[in-house]
Design brief:
By secondary structure, the protein is mainly α. 57% of the residues lie in helices and 4% in strands. The chain is built from eleven helices and three strands; from the N terminus they run βββααααααααααα. The chain is globular, with a radius of gyration of 21 Å.
Length: 314
C-alpha cells in the first residue's frame, strides 16, 4: 500500500508546474511523472524556507537595488490586497471595573478601524481593477491576459483577490451593520470565514484557517492509502478516482470539512474547483518565472504561494 501526498509544484526559477503532482513516501514519482517534477517541488520548498529564515537574502535585498524594486513590483501584488495591520491594546492587570470597560471599548474600536481600513482598500483595489479591465481584450480571461503579457503577476493577483473580496461585500456588510463591534466574535463563533473578504480576515482567522487546513492535510496523509487497484487514470486531474479526489480535497481545502463529517465526497464540486485551482496555479507558475522568479517573492506572498500548492507554512 502506498501512502500518498499531493502537491502543486513550482521550481525556484518559476518553471511551469506539472499540474497535480502525486508524491509518495520518499518523494519518488509514479511512473507517469518525470523525476524532474519532484526536484522542482523540493527546490521551491527550499527557496521558501531558506529565504524566510535569513534576513538580508533573496526575500529582503537592499531597497536601493532599483532592479529588485522593479521586479518585486511585477511579482508581488500591492499590500492593499492583504489584510491591514491590527493593533490591539494590551490589558493591564490593574484594569478592572470602569477601566476594563474602557479597555474593551478600545479593543472594539481597533476592530472597527481594521474593518474600515479593509473595506476602503477593497474600494481602491476595485477602482484599479476597473482600469486593468481595459487592458484585457474582450472575450479573454485574466489568465489569458497574464500569459499574453497584458497583466503582470502583481496585477493578475490584484484582479483575482479583488473579485473575490467584492463578491463577499454584500453579506459581510450586512453582518457588519448588524453586529458592529461584535463582528469578530460572531465570525469566529459561527465560522463565517467564507462570508468575510480575505482582506478583512483578522490575524486569528488567518492562523486558525491555516492550522485547520494543515491538520486536515496531515490527517489525510495518515489515513489515506492508495493501491494499484484504485489509482485508475491519473492523467486528468479533474477526473481522479474517488479516494484520490477526496485526499486532494482535504489536502488543498477545496471543500468544507462538513462533507467528511457526513461521509460524502461531492465529486462534481471538487472536480470543478480542482480544475480551476490547476488552471490558476499553472498561470501563476508562468507569471512567477516571467516576472522574476520565486526569489523575488516577499515573505507573505511566499507563504500564500506555498499554501496554495499544498505546502505547510506554519
Amino acid at each position: 500500500m502506498i501512502r500518498s501526498r499531493y502537491r502543486f509544484g513550482l521550481d525556484a526559477s518559476g518553471l511551469q508546474s506539472s499540474k497535480a503532482l502525486l508524491l509518495y513516501d520518499g518523494y519518488k514519482p509514479f511512473p507517469f511523472l518525470a523525476p524532474a517534477h519532484y526536484a522542482r517541488l523540493r527546490r521551491f520548498e527550499s527557496s521558501i524556507s531558506n529565504g524566510a529564515q535569513r534576513s538580508g537574502t533573496a526575500l529582503t535585498p537592499k531597497a536601493k537595488d532599483s532592479t529588485y524594486v522593479q521586479t518585486t513590483a511585477k511579482v508581488n501584488p500591492p499590500a492593499s490586497t492583504l489584510p491591514p495591520s491590527l493593533a490591539l491594546p494590551e490589558r493591564q492587570a490593574e484594569e478592572t471595573g470602569i477601566r476594563a470597560l474602557k479597555f474593551y471599548y478600545r479593543t472594539a474600536k481597533a476592530y472597527v478601524t481594521f474593518y474600515k481600513t479593509g473595506v476602503k482598500a477593497i474600494y481602491q483595489n476595485y477602482k484599479t481593477l476597473r482600469h486593468l479591465r481595459t487592458r484585457i481584450p474582450p472575450g479573454r480571461s485574466a489568465e489569458q491576459a497574464l500569459r499574453d503579457g497584458q497583466l503582470s503577476r502583481a496585477e493578475y493577483h490584484l484582479v483575482r483577490r479583488t473579485r473575490s473580496d467584492v463578491s463577499r461585500i454584500p453579506l459581510f456588510g450586512l453582518v457588519l451593520v448588524i453586529c458592529g463591534e461584535f463582528t469578530p466574535l460572531v465570525v469566529l463563533f459561527l465560522g463565517l470565514d467564507a462570508a468575510v473578504p480575505r482582506i478583512c480576515h483578522i490575524p486569528r482567522q488567518v492562523e486558525g484557517a491555516r492550522k485547520r487546513l494543515e491538520e486536515a492535510r496531515r490527517k489525510s496523509f495518515r489515513e489515506g492509502t492508495i493501491t494499484g487497484k484504485n489509482t485508475g487514470d491519473l492523467s486528468d486531474v479533474t477526473n481522479l478516482p474517488k479516494p484520490i479526489l477526496a485526499h486532494v480535497a482535504n489536502s488543498l481545502g477545496l471543500v468544507s470539512g462538513l462533507w467528511n463529517t457526513i461521509g460524502i465526497t461531492p465529486r462534481p464540486l471538487i472536480s470543478w474547483r480542482l480544475g480551476r485551482v490547476v488552471d490558476w496555479i499553472d498561470a501563476d507558475d508562468f507569471a512567477i518565472g516571467r516576472d522574476g522568479g520565486v526569489k523575488h517573492l516577499n515573505e507573505e506572498e511566499s507563504k500564500l504561494a506555498a499554501e496554495a500548492r499544498g505546502i505547510d507554512v506554519l
